[in-house]
């Protein structure tokens, strides 16, 4: 589902954060990527989610080389991947209600009316009441907002879900609830998962394979 082939990426010229790294996630497979803070896990996750253009190397989704990153990523490629980040407040438009936030990918692809029922079902499955769906991010807890971000990531039924420290800020019961939603989604749709984090126990529980982020360049 996802192949990173000799990917090098970074921010400051000549100082790669990820160097010559290759990684594959099979169809329906769950892979955990483990590493300490600052090692480059999020950078790699953003490359895999087509949100950061690598300096070198190839990214393939379902066998097809990705042709563009960020705003240059074609919609058909972008919508194959769902992403959830560590900090929901940085990933949510503060002007939107939680209901509109979940429906955002549908509206952006001109499918708002078609997917309205699906969005409502997802919100219900993920534990968001109609009252919460009418609130804006500043009126809900981090856990409630992260639930909405996960629902948003699943709305277009991506074949690959990328979770970048999705539960790092959450309590045990919200963590368990979100993990259960991801597992159910994967069971139902056969989706692959790339979970990035620093908690080996959590990643082991979630994933078929857990890899250590390489420390060498
Ligand atoms: N936008 C940016 N501009 C410049 N440097 C950055 C940027 N984002 C990250 N970095 C640097 O790249 C390196 C890797 O960061 P990254 O966020 O990928 O690490 P991480 O392993 O996900 O860390 P954490 O677990 O703390 O989130 C760090 O040294 C960081 O300072």
TrEMBL record:
Name the GO terms of the biological process aspect: transmembrane transport
Question: Which UniProt keywords are listed?
Answer: ATP-binding, Nucleotide-binding, Transport
Is Plastid among this UniProt entry's keywords?
A: no
One GO molecular-function entry? ATP binding
Regions annotated as coiled coil: none
Check the record and name the InterPro entries matching this protein: AAA+_ATPase (IPR003593), ABC_transp_ATP-bind (IPR050319), ABC_transporter-like_ATP-bd (IPR003439), P-loop_NTPase (IPR027417)
Q: Which Pfam families match?
A: ABC_tran
KW ATP-binding (keyword) present: yes
Q: Where is the ABC transporter domain?
A: 2-217
- The highest taxon in the source lineage is Bacteria
Q: Which PANTHER family match?
A: D,D-DIPEPTIDE TRANSPORT ATP-BINDING PROTEIN DDPF-RELATED, TRANSPORT ATP-BINDING PROTEIN
Family (UniProt): Belongs to the ABC transporter superfamily.
Name of the protein: ATP-binding cassette domain-containing protein
């Amino acid at each position: 589902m996802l192949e990173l082939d000799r990917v090098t990426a970074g921010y400051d010229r000549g100082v790669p954060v990820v160097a010559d790294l290759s990684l594959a996630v099979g169809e329906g497979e769950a892979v955990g990527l483990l590493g300490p803070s600052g090692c480059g896990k999020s950078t790699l996750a953003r490359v895999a989610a087509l949100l950061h253009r690598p300096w070198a190397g190839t990214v393939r989704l379902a066998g097809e080389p990705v042709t563009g990153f960020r705003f240059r990523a074609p919609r058909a490629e972008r919508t194959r991947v769902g992403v959830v980040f560590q900090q929901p407040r940085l990933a949510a438009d503060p002007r939107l209600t939680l209901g509109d936030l979940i429906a955002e990918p549908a509206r952006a692809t001109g499918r708002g009316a078609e997917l309205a029922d699906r969005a409502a079902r997802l919100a219900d499955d993920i534990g968001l009441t109609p009252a919460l769906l009418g609130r804006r991010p500043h009126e809900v807890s981090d856990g409630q907002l992260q639930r909405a971000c996960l629902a948003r990531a699943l709305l277009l039924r991506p074949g690959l879900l990328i979770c970048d420290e999705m539960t790092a800020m959450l309590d045990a019961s919200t963590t368990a609830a979100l993990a259960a939603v991801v597992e159910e989604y994967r069971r139902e749709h056969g989706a692959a998962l790339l979970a990035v984090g620093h908690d080996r126990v959590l990643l082991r529980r979630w994933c078929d394979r857990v890899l250590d982020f390489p420390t060498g360049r």
